[in-house]
Amino acid sequence: MRLKPQQTGYVASKVAIDLANAPFVKLLKGKDAVREKVKELIDANLQIEKALDEQVHKIIDENYDEIEFQHADERQLFFMIKKKLAPEYGVIMNYDDRYNDLSHKILDELYENYLIEYDVNENQVKNVIFKAFKEFANAYEEIDDIVYNKIRNMEREVIPGSQDYELLYERLYQEELRRRGML
User: Per its UniProt record, what InterPro entries does this chain match (predicted)?
Assistant: First the structure.
């Protein structure tokens, strides 16, 4: 699952909660400090991918006439170009590998900035972070469906795409995350 910018705070909260609950990790400056650093690192990672996506769009736009002439599938072409340029940008295309790499970076930053300390093998702590990413990714679709159904079954009609819909969706999404202990 590809993270969206509005989801980074949720994932960061999940990581901070899971680290706080790990018996072998001590948060030296509290959960909020850990959450903020994790969010900062995830946001930076997404910015790099956004720059890659912009470059791919630029290449496609520059070659639009040829793409149309060849009747090429733009989505498939986008993915192929992105895959080719990804190493140049340092973007890992496989999400499990990406979350694993990001988990290592998060662990290093948290330790180097004196936000956490631990007395076990660093892989155990890294696995807590990685597992938080995976649990969020696995729960995302289910939570999205639950929230969508709640909105659809409301007595008053809320129009998808409207500001009311977005605010309601966000509130219900956060409630569901809290209910699951992910926020």
Answer: DUF507
